[in-house]
């Protein structure tokens, strides 16, 4: 009999998930909950995130914003074009698709645009985790997404509560 839920999942479904994989998801769930409560009054949506980025950009660590944004840009843009991964974000409409791609492709994007794009994508991670295709066995491919998301969420929560 497996000792932990992780052991049980790995044994039952022949997977090789690690504590790190699960920790990144657990941390994301906790941080997103705090973020949504503090920033969006428990009602996160694209408009709330965009307004927030416009209003409070000066509060945040530009190094963190750039690090997360660069990770996301490198994940979703290769050789000046969107990668196959980009479509799996399942963005809600063409306006957001165009805005994110334009921002990624513009070397002069502002810090506000970088924060907006990062938050829109992190929100998609959240929505896809809760409402998207459910395949927990491949969550290991999302560890870096959650690690970078967690870094930005922590920075926002810390700065907003200071």
Descriptive account of the structure:
The chain is mostly helical and 162 residues long. The protein has one domain (5-161). The chain contains 8 helices and 2 strands; from the N terminus they run H-H-H-H-E-E-H-H-H-H. The chain has a two-stranded antiparallel ribbon. The N and C termini lie far apart (47 Å). The mean pLDDT is 92.
List keywords for this structure.
about 160 residues; mainly alpha; two-stranded antiparallel ribbon; 2 strands; about 70% helix; globular
Query: What coarse outline follows from CA principal-axis ratios?
Result: globular
Residue windows where pLDDT falls under 50 for at least 5 positions: none
Number of strands: 2
DSSP helical segment count: 8
Largest sheet: 2 strands, antiparallel
Q: How would you summarize the topology of this molecule?
A:
Elements: H1 5-13, H2 19-40, H3 46-56, H4 62-76, E1 77-78, E2 81-82, H5 84-87, H6 94-105, H7 111-131, H8 143-161
